[in-house]
Design brief:
4% of the residues lie in helices and 38% in strands. The chain has a single domain, classed as Jelly Rolls, CATH 2.60.120. The chain is built from one helix and 19 strands. The strands form four sheets. Strands 2, 4, 5, 7, 12, 15, 16 and 18 form an eight-stranded antiparallel sheet that branches. A seven-stranded antiparallel sheet has the order 3-6-17-8-9-10-11, with no helix packed on it. It has a two-stranded parallel ribbon with strand order 1-19. The N and C termini lie far apart (36 Å). It is mainly β. The radius of gyration is 18 Å and the shape is globular. A hairpin with a 2-residue loop joins strand 15 and strand 16. The N terminus is likely disordered.
């Protein structure tokens, strides 16, 4: 718990601010019963059908509310409920999962917001899901890392983002822009408002680390950040720098599910549900509702 508290404290201090070219737009569908973990490219998956998450590779959390009534597919989904003036949900803990290190990572999950969901009306928060890398430990806080990338709904849009404030004293410095009051970051938002109802929606994200020119000691601007909403590509950047030559061995290896509103930013009591989550090295397919 001490480690968890430390990670949460580090996380709270970050205001944030925060695929492969030619991927086909179509993807295979799956069912909730599909043995997705046996499919190529799957690193791990979670259907949130019961509370035994710690027995399936998750850690750094100890309380999980599984809703059978609100599920998208399978037997249940994880529920995150915020009381008035709260920052973290009271119903379920934030949680993490390690996976095999990789240069390229894909996320697929289903998200549902409660009716009359409220936004901060600021250009930050709520935070929701992150990936971190081999350059930080398994309990390191995401706000002050060598690289954290974010997947979150932000004022109705889908946001993908990155920050690396721990690199301020590295030889090549920050890759995600200058520090601004204790945070830095690059933001990649969908153009359209997407989260505008209380229905289930499929969110997919892809992050691919840029290559490095070690001879000239420079990063190449060929990293990729992509996002899909209900199967439609809504964010597409192929010119991104996510790492410098200070970290030639950096790879993604940790997923974090840490729903969080900054102090005073929660508009009112509200709930968020997540179901049919999977992480892999390629797109993982949509899931049919059941």
């Amino acid at each position: 718990m001490r480690r968890r508290a430390l990670a949460t404290t580090l996380y709270a201090t970050g205001v944030l601010l925060c695929g492969f070219a030619g991927l086909p737009s179509a993807q295979p569908s799956a069912t909730a019963a599909d043995p997705i973990e046996k499919r190529p490219g799957v690193l791990f998956r979670e259907s949130f059908d019961d509370q035994r998450l710690l027995q399936r590779g998750w850690y750094d959390g100890d309380k999980f509310s599984i809703s059978a009534n609100e599920r998208y597919a399978g037997e249940g989904c994880v529920e995150y409920f915020w009381k008035n003036d709260a920052t973290t949900p009271t119903s379920s803990s934030g949680i993490r999962h390690l996976f095999e290190p990789t240069d390229t990572v894909f996320l697929r999950c289903y998200i549902k917001l409660s009716k009359s969901w409220g936004w901060t009306r600021r250009d930050y928060h709520p935070h929701l899901m992150q990936f971190m890398t081999t350059e930080n430990s398994k309990f390191h806080g995401p706000a002050g890392s060598h690289l954290t990338v974010y997947v979150e709904p932000q004022n109705g849009k889908l946001r993908l983002a990155a920050q690396d404030i721990q690199n301020k004293d590295q030889p090549h410095g920050l890759t995600q822009g200058p520090l601004r009051g204790g945070f830095n970051g690059q933001l990649y938002d969908s153009k359209e408002m997407l989260f505008n109802d209380d229905r289930w929606h499929c969110v997919e994200a892809m992050f691919q680390l840029n290559s490095l020119d070690l001879k000239t000691d420079k990063p190449n601007s060929d990293g990729i950040v992509r996002g899909w909403f209900d199967g439609k590509l809504v964010i597409d950047r192929t010119d991104v720098v996510l790492r410098s030559t200070d970290f030639p061995k950096m790879k993604f290896n940790q997923f974090l599910l840490l729903p969080y509103f900054g102090p005073g930013l929660l508009p009112h009591e509200q709930t968020l549900w997540i179901d049919e989550l999977a992480v892999g090295t390629q797109r993982l397919g949509l899931v049919e509702a059941r």
